[in-house]
Amino acid sequence: MLAVIFPGQGSQSLGMSKDFYDNFELVRQIFAEIKEKTKIDVENIIFNDPKNQLNITEFSQISIYSASISMFSVINSIYGSKFLNNIAFVAGHSLGEYTALAAAKVINILECAELLKFRGIYMQNSYPENESGMLAVIGCDIKDIESIITENEDNNIFEIANDNAPGQVVISLKKNNFDKASSLLVSKGAKRVIPLNVSAAFHSSYMKQAEDKMIKKLDETIFNNAIYPIVSNYSANPSKDSKDIKNNVKKQILNRVRWVETIKFFEANNVSTIVEIGPNKVLNNLNKRISSNLKLINVSSVADLESIKNVI
Question: In this structure, which topology does domain 2-126+205-311 adopt according to CATH?
């Protein structure tokens, strides 16, 4: 059985999906429709980026989504039921979970683009610019970080944002606490603590304002039951039920991404192959550190489409 996954922020690169755009009218149509719906020129941002917007949250999220869902749509158009009928679960990392919503037909492609337009704006502006951020903690597992938080619960200065892989946990905090947190973590066994190039402290209480606004947008959107179970970032459990899925997505923005648990769920539930669809290979580079029992396939270029033949 297959699990299909979609990457999140940080996977973007200039020119991503250009070969799909050049070779498939379907992709050009999707890009044009997203531009018309959202008034964001994703084609120009992704391929030219004249205003240096690709790495700004407000624009990077919808750009990554446009690339990923276009690639998925091409696979669907080429392989159809031979591919789709082999999908047991879908999931995505942070914004990638929204791509999973569209892939599983919970909402349509343009509705999802509209939601991500606002999600990017809300997250970009949820906390004063450059006052919060994220650190990747290398060499500590999730239990190590949880123990540090428990030991310092009266004076805790960070929150867990992403449990990405064994030995890689991302935390969110105020930037003026970077040095203090880094020193503490190194003293507790971290090999390195690396500041991430992000505009704010995502998946944490610093996103409370964004969560409040996003909940209103989600409540205005009709969700359908999923055609594939979506494994939630919030719970690391699967659901096809529209109410469960909406509730999980509402909680996602303020809570940690349980990626290690997601991959372990796949492993425990008869998934043999993970297909990552989207720019670069960020997630499967994490996945190979989580499990050695899963076959990992990436589709990030037209040439990669051939690899789908090996799993259907």
Answer: Malonyl-Coenzyme A Acyl Carrier Protein; domain 2 (3.40.366)
